[in-house]
Amino acid sequence: MPITPLHLGPGVLVKSFAGTHLSLTMFALAQITMDLEVLLRFALKSAQLHGFSNTIIGATVVLIVTVPLGKPFCEWLLRWWNRNLSSAQARWLQVSENISWRAAWLGGTLGVYSHFILDAIMHSDARPWMPFSEVNSAVDLISIERLNLLCLVCLLIGGVLMGGYGLFKAHGRRIRPDARP
Fold first, then answer.
1. Rounded to whole angstroms, how far apart are CA atoms 167 and 180?
2. How many domains does the chain have?
């Protein structure tokens, strides 16, 4: 299934530890961008859904294009998110609206290449090492069910850690609203 939310799992888990060093919005945008070709091929009823963007060269091109164009879009999206939060929600859901270039590149890189690896394992029509090899040695490395479970576990653990941190931040603001960082 294109644009599966389960592919976000590894990014959410890494973000829970990396904090501001990784942009989760850039990670998600990179994941979506990786599937644009798949969506187009699906709409055109192509026999092969996973083409150029699912090769090592194609994924690298996606990364090089997505990060510089996507960073301003992701920052706009974060500003929109913050503007639409109530004051109660903002205590623990407000996010920084600025993404450093390092965080953008790290989020984009993790997004593109984790997607590349996950698709190589899941899809027999992917040829990840083209033009160097037509063989997809990663396909069925683990079952799709176990891979989805692994992504789901990463999503849940990362979500709990990030949610816990958000609640901790919100609780700290209520106790000491005048505290300086």
1. 18
2. 1
